[in-house]
Amino acid sequence: MRIVIALGGNALLRRGEKPTVEVQRAHIQRAARAVAEVAREHTVVVTHGNGPQIGLLAARAIGQRETDRAPLDVLGAESMGMIGYLIEQALTNELPRQRIATVLTQVEVHSDDPAFQNPTKPIGPVLTKSEAEQLSNRHGWSVAPEGEHYRRVVASPEPVRVLQWETISLLVDAGVLVICGGGGGIPVVSDESGTISGVEAVIDKDRTADLLARSLRADALLLLTDVTALQDRWGTPDAEPIRTASPSRLRGMELAAGSMGPKVDAACRFVESGLGFAAIGAIEDAAAILRGESGTIVRNGDA
Question: Which of 60-74, 123-137, 173-187 has the highest mean pLDDT?
Protein backbone atom coordinates (compact mmCIF):
# COMPACT_ATOMS: atom_id res chain seq x y z
CA MET A 1 0.00 0.00 0.00
CA ARG A 2 0.95 3.64 -0.47
CA ILE A 3 0.53 5.30 2.93
CA VAL A 4 0.84 8.92 4.02
CA ILE A 5 1.85 9.08 7.69
CA ALA A 6 1.21 12.40 9.44
CA LEU A 7 3.25 12.76 12.64
CA GLY A 8 1.69 15.02 15.25
CA GLY A 9 3.64 17.69 17.10
CA ASN A 10 4.26 15.32 19.99
CA ALA A 11 6.57 13.39 17.68
CA LEU A 12 9.03 16.22 18.27
CA LEU A 13 8.25 18.03 21.49
CA ARG A 14 5.67 17.81 24.27
CA ARG A 15 4.15 20.64 26.25
CA GLY A 16 6.41 21.75 29.11
CA GLU A 17 9.57 20.12 27.74
CA LYS A 18 12.72 22.10 27.04
CA PRO A 19 13.00 22.66 23.28
CA THR A 20 16.51 21.26 23.00
CA VAL A 21 17.74 19.26 20.02
CA GLU A 22 18.43 16.32 22.35
CA VAL A 23 14.82 16.20 23.56
CA GLN A 24 13.46 16.47 20.02
CA ARG A 25 15.87 13.85 18.73
CA ALA A 26 14.70 11.36 21.39
CA HIS A 27 11.06 11.79 20.36
CA ILE A 28 11.93 11.57 16.67
CA GLN A 29 13.85 8.33 17.19
CA ARG A 30 10.73 6.82 18.78
CA ALA A 31 8.61 8.00 15.85
CA ALA A 32 11.19 6.76 13.33
CA ARG A 33 11.05 3.24 14.77
CA ALA A 34 7.28 3.20 14.28
CA VAL A 35 7.49 4.62 10.75
CA ALA A 36 10.26 2.18 9.82
CA GLU A 37 8.15 -0.79 10.89
CA VAL A 38 5.47 0.29 8.40
CA ALA A 39 7.97 1.26 5.68
CA ARG A 40 9.47 -2.24 5.64
CA GLU A 41 6.18 -3.52 4.27
CA HIS A 42 4.63 -0.50 2.50
CA THR A 43 5.44 2.63 0.49
CA VAL A 44 5.50 5.54 2.93
CA VAL A 45 5.39 9.34 2.71
CA VAL A 46 5.88 11.25 5.98
CA THR A 47 4.49 14.64 6.97
CA HIS A 48 4.98 16.33 10.35
CA GLY A 49 4.07 19.23 12.59
CA ASN A 50 6.25 22.23 13.46
CA GLY A 51 4.21 24.18 16.02
CA PRO A 52 6.76 24.41 18.87
CA GLN A 53 9.67 25.05 16.50
CA ILE A 54 8.12 27.85 14.46
CA GLY A 55 6.78 29.33 17.69
CA LEU A 56 10.34 29.57 19.02
CA LEU A 57 11.59 31.10 15.79
CA ALA A 58 8.76 33.62 15.88
CA ALA A 59 9.60 34.46 19.50
CA ARG A 60 13.20 35.21 18.58
CA ALA A 61 12.02 37.58 15.88
CA ILE A 62 10.05 39.76 18.29
CA GLY A 63 13.02 41.84 19.37
CA GLN A 64 14.48 42.23 15.88
CA ARG A 65 14.25 45.30 13.73
CA GLU A 66 11.65 45.22 10.96
CA THR A 67 14.39 45.08 8.32
CA ASP A 68 16.06 42.10 10.05
CA ARG A 69 12.93 40.09 10.86
CA ALA A 70 12.23 37.11 8.58
CA PRO A 71 8.60 36.72 7.47
CA LEU A 72 6.57 33.78 8.69
CA ASP A 73 6.84 31.80 5.44
CA VAL A 74 10.64 31.92 5.67
CA LEU A 75 10.51 30.81 9.32
CA GLY A 76 8.29 27.93 8.23
CA ALA A 77 10.86 26.88 5.65
CA GLU A 78 13.60 27.12 8.28
CA SER A 79 11.70 24.88 10.69
CA MET A 80 10.87 22.40 7.92
CA GLY A 81 14.53 22.03 7.01
CA MET A 82 15.60 21.48 10.62
CA ILE A 83 12.88 18.96 11.45
CA GLY A 84 13.24 17.19 8.11
CA TYR A 85 16.94 16.73 8.77
CA LEU A 86 16.31 15.14 12.17
CA ILE A 87 13.60 12.81 10.84
CA GLU A 88 15.64 11.88 7.78
CA GLN A 89 18.67 11.02 9.88
CA ALA A 90 16.64 8.93 12.33
CA LEU A 91 14.93 7.02 9.51
CA THR A 92 18.25 6.44 7.75
CA ASN A 93 19.57 4.81 10.92
CA GLU A 94 16.47 2.60 11.11
CA LEU A 95 16.39 1.81 7.38
CA PRO A 96 20.01 1.97 6.16
CA ARG A 97 19.19 0.55 2.70
CA GLN A 98 16.19 2.80 2.10
CA ARG A 99 16.58 5.90 -0.07
CA ILE A 100 15.19 8.88 1.84
CA ALA A 101 14.74 12.54 0.88
CA THR A 102 13.29 15.65 2.49
CA VAL A 103 11.39 17.96 0.14
CA LEU A 104 10.88 21.61 1.06
CA THR A 105 7.17 21.91 0.30
CA GLN A 106 5.22 24.97 -0.78
CA VAL A 107 1.43 24.83 -0.50
CA GLU A 108 -0.78 27.21 -2.41
CA VAL A 109 -3.66 29.00 -0.72
CA HIS A 110 -6.11 31.50 -2.18
CA SER A 111 -5.28 35.15 -1.49
CA ASP A 112 -8.99 35.87 -0.97
CA ASP A 113 -9.46 33.07 1.56
CA PRO A 114 -11.75 34.43 4.34
CA ALA A 115 -9.19 33.25 6.92
CA PHE A 116 -7.01 36.25 6.07
CA GLN A 117 -9.79 38.51 7.35
CA ASN A 118 -10.18 36.51 10.56
CA PRO A 119 -6.79 35.36 11.93
CA THR A 120 -7.25 32.66 14.59
CA LYS A 121 -4.07 30.56 14.69
CA PRO A 122 -1.93 31.40 17.79
CA ILE A 123 1.80 31.54 17.24
CA GLY A 124 4.78 32.58 19.32
CA PRO A 125 5.05 33.34 23.04
CA VAL A 126 2.43 34.33 25.59
CA LEU A 127 2.27 38.13 25.95
CA THR A 128 0.98 40.65 28.43
CA LYS A 129 -1.67 43.08 27.23
CA SER A 130 0.91 45.85 27.06
CA GLU A 131 3.37 43.70 25.07
CA ALA A 132 0.61 42.61 22.70
CA GLU A 133 -0.44 46.20 22.04
CA GLN A 134 3.14 47.32 21.43
CA LEU A 135 3.85 44.48 18.99
CA SER A 136 0.55 45.01 17.21
CA ASN A 137 1.33 48.70 16.73
CA ARG A 138 4.97 48.09 15.76
CA HIS A 139 4.50 45.20 13.31
CA GLY A 140 0.83 45.41 12.39
CA TRP A 141 0.22 41.99 13.93
CA SER A 142 -3.18 40.69 14.98
CA VAL A 143 -3.32 39.65 18.64
CA ALA A 144 -6.00 37.86 20.63
CA PRO A 145 -6.61 37.02 24.29
CA GLU A 146 -5.61 33.58 25.55
CA GLY A 147 -6.83 33.18 29.11
CA GLU A 148 -5.35 36.03 31.12
CA HIS A 149 -2.72 36.73 28.47
CA TYR A 150 -2.43 37.44 24.75
CA ARG A 151 -0.78 35.86 21.71
CA ARG A 152 -0.16 36.79 18.13
CA VAL A 153 -2.67 35.17 15.76
CA VAL A 154 -2.29 34.56 12.04
CA ALA A 155 -4.54 33.28 9.27
CA SER A 156 -4.99 29.55 8.72
CA PRO A 157 -6.22 29.36 5.10
CA GLU A 158 -7.39 26.25 3.27
CA PRO A 159 -4.64 24.43 1.31
CA VAL A 160 -5.60 24.10 -2.36
CA ARG A 161 -2.49 22.69 -4.07
CA VAL A 162 0.80 21.12 -3.02
CA LEU A 163 3.22 22.69 -5.50
CA GLN A 164 5.76 19.89 -5.29
CA TRP A 165 3.32 16.98 -5.39
CA GLU A 166 4.47 15.82 -8.84
CA THR A 167 8.11 15.87 -7.73
CA ILE A 168 7.14 13.94 -4.61
CA SER A 169 5.22 11.44 -6.75
CA LEU A 170 8.25 10.89 -9.00
CA LEU A 171 10.43 10.23 -5.95
CA VAL A 172 7.88 7.83 -4.47
CA ASP A 173 7.62 5.94 -7.78
CA ALA A 174 11.42 5.64 -7.72
CA GLY A 175 11.29 3.97 -4.30
CA VAL A 176 12.25 7.01 -2.20
CA LEU A 177 10.74 7.52 1.26
CA VAL A 178 9.82 11.21 1.16
CA ILE A 179 9.51 13.59 4.13
CA CYS A 180 7.47 16.62 3.10
CA GLY A 181 4.64 19.02 3.94
CA GLY A 182 6.16 19.90 7.31
CA GLY A 183 3.97 22.14 9.45
CA GLY A 184 1.30 22.15 6.75
CA GLY A 185 3.80 23.41 4.16
CA ILE A 186 5.06 26.88 3.33
CA PRO A 187 1.98 28.99 2.47
CA VAL A 188 2.18 30.76 -0.89
CA VAL A 189 -0.19 32.57 -3.23
CA SER A 190 0.03 33.02 -7.00
CA ASP A 191 -0.94 36.05 -9.09
CA GLU A 192 -2.53 36.18 -12.54
CA SER A 193 0.86 35.61 -14.22
CA GLY A 194 1.55 32.53 -12.10
CA THR A 195 4.22 34.20 -9.97
CA ILE A 196 4.21 32.79 -6.43
CA SER A 197 5.06 34.55 -3.18
CA GLY A 198 4.95 33.63 0.48
CA VAL A 199 2.30 34.89 2.89
CA GLU A 200 2.08 35.35 6.65
CA ALA A 201 -0.05 32.35 7.55
CA VAL A 202 0.02 28.83 8.99
CA ILE A 203 -1.74 25.99 7.17
CA ASP A 204 -3.27 23.19 9.23
CA LYS A 205 -0.87 20.25 8.91
CA ASP A 206 -3.60 17.59 8.91
CA ARG A 207 -5.49 19.24 6.06
CA THR A 208 -2.26 19.39 4.06
CA ALA A 209 -1.64 15.71 4.84
CA ASP A 210 -5.10 14.90 3.45
CA LEU A 211 -4.53 17.03 0.34
CA LEU A 212 -1.16 15.37 -0.23
CA ALA A 213 -2.61 11.88 0.26
CA ARG A 214 -5.34 12.61 -2.29
CA SER A 215 -2.84 14.14 -4.74
CA LEU A 216 -0.64 11.03 -4.49
CA ARG A 217 -3.68 8.73 -4.65
CA ALA A 218 -2.62 7.02 -1.45
CA ASP A 219 -4.34 3.90 -0.14
CA ALA A 220 -4.32 5.09 3.46
CA LEU A 221 -3.80 8.19 5.61
CA LEU A 222 -2.46 7.62 9.13
CA LEU A 223 -2.81 10.57 11.51
CA LEU A 224 -0.58 9.70 14.44
CA THR A 225 -0.58 11.54 17.76
CA ASP A 226 -0.41 10.79 21.50
CA VAL A 227 -3.85 9.18 21.92
CA THR A 228 -4.50 5.51 21.24
CA ALA A 229 -7.93 6.09 19.65
CA LEU A 230 -10.89 8.43 19.47
CA GLN A 231 -13.36 7.93 22.30
CA ASP A 232 -17.09 7.96 22.69
CA ARG A 233 -18.15 10.04 25.70
CA TRP A 234 -14.61 11.34 26.10
CA GLY A 235 -13.84 12.70 29.57
CA THR A 236 -16.57 10.70 31.32
CA PRO A 237 -16.41 7.45 33.33
CA ASP A 238 -18.25 5.77 30.44
CA ALA A 239 -15.65 6.67 27.82
CA GLU A 240 -14.71 3.88 25.44
CA PRO A 241 -12.53 3.72 22.31
CA ILE A 242 -14.07 3.97 18.85
CA ARG A 243 -12.49 1.21 16.77
CA THR A 244 -14.25 1.82 13.46
CA ALA A 245 -16.40 4.69 12.26
CA SER A 246 -17.79 6.30 9.14
CA PRO A 247 -17.19 9.96 8.25
CA SER A 248 -20.86 10.71 8.88
CA ARG A 249 -20.63 9.37 12.43
CA LEU A 250 -17.45 11.31 13.22
CA ARG A 251 -18.79 14.55 11.74
CA GLY A 252 -21.62 14.32 14.23
CA MET A 253 -19.25 14.43 17.20
CA GLU A 254 -18.22 17.60 19.03
CA LEU A 255 -14.44 17.82 18.92
CA ALA A 256 -11.93 20.48 19.98
CA ALA A 257 -10.89 22.69 17.07
CA GLY A 258 -7.31 22.85 18.35
CA SER A 259 -6.71 19.12 18.83
CA MET A 260 -8.78 16.24 17.45
CA GLY A 261 -11.07 18.36 15.27
CA PRO A 262 -8.60 18.89 12.38
CA LYS A 263 -7.48 15.25 12.47
CA VAL A 264 -11.03 13.95 12.24
CA ASP A 265 -11.84 16.43 9.47
CA ALA A 266 -8.75 15.35 7.50
CA ALA A 267 -9.58 11.67 7.98
CA CYS A 268 -13.16 12.21 6.81
CA ARG A 269 -12.08 14.22 3.76
CA PHE A 270 -9.69 11.51 2.63
CA VAL A 271 -12.21 8.69 3.11
CA GLU A 272 -14.95 10.69 1.38
CA SER A 273 -12.66 10.99 -1.67
CA GLY A 274 -13.11 7.25 -2.17
CA LEU A 275 -9.40 6.45 -2.37
CA GLY A 276 -8.96 4.39 0.79
CA PHE A 277 -9.19 4.43 4.56
CA ALA A 278 -7.85 6.73 7.26
CA ALA A 279 -6.86 6.05 10.84
CA ILE A 280 -6.11 8.01 14.01
CA GLY A 281 -3.98 6.59 16.80
CA ALA A 282 -0.74 6.59 18.74
CA ILE A 283 2.60 6.94 16.99
CA GLU A 284 4.08 3.77 18.48
CA ASP A 285 1.01 1.80 17.32
CA ALA A 286 1.38 2.63 13.60
CA ALA A 287 1.85 -0.97 12.43
CA ALA A 288 -0.81 -2.28 14.81
CA ILE A 289 -3.27 0.30 13.47
CA LEU A 290 -2.76 -1.01 9.94
CA ARG A 291 -3.43 -4.53 11.21
CA GLY A 292 -6.68 -3.32 12.77
CA GLU A 293 -5.44 -3.97 16.31
CA SER A 294 -5.34 -0.38 17.56
CA GLY A 295 -6.50 3.15 16.82
CA THR A 296 -9.68 4.32 15.14
CA ILE A 297 -10.19 3.22 11.54
CA VAL A 298 -12.33 5.48 9.38
CA ARG A 299 -14.06 3.88 6.39
CA ASN A 300 -17.15 4.52 4.32
CA GLY A 301 -20.03 2.40 5.56
CA ASP A 302 -18.69 1.71 9.07
CA ALA A 303 -21.06 2.36 11.97
Answer: 173-187
Contact 270, 263 (CB under 8 A): no
> Residue 153, class by beta-carbon neighbours within 10 Å (0-12 exposed, 13-18 middle, 19+ buried)?
buried
142 exposure class (CB count in 10 Å sphere: 0-12, 13-18, 19+): middle
9 is catalytic: yes
Q: Is 129 a catalytic residue?
A: no
Which entry of 10, 84, 185, 276 is annotated as an active-site residue? Answer: 10
Architecture of the domain defined by 2-111+157-298: 3-Layer(aba) Sandwich (3.40)
Cβ contact 303:281 at 8 Å: no
Tens of pLDDT, residue by residue over 40-75, are 999 999 999 887 777 777 766 666 555 556 888 998
The boundaries of every CATH 3.40.1160.10 domain in the chain are 2-111+157-298
The catalytic residue among 50, 182, 184, 263 is 263
Spatial neighbors of 261 by CB under 8 A, at least 6 apart, are: 255
For residue 205, indicate whether it is catalytic: yes
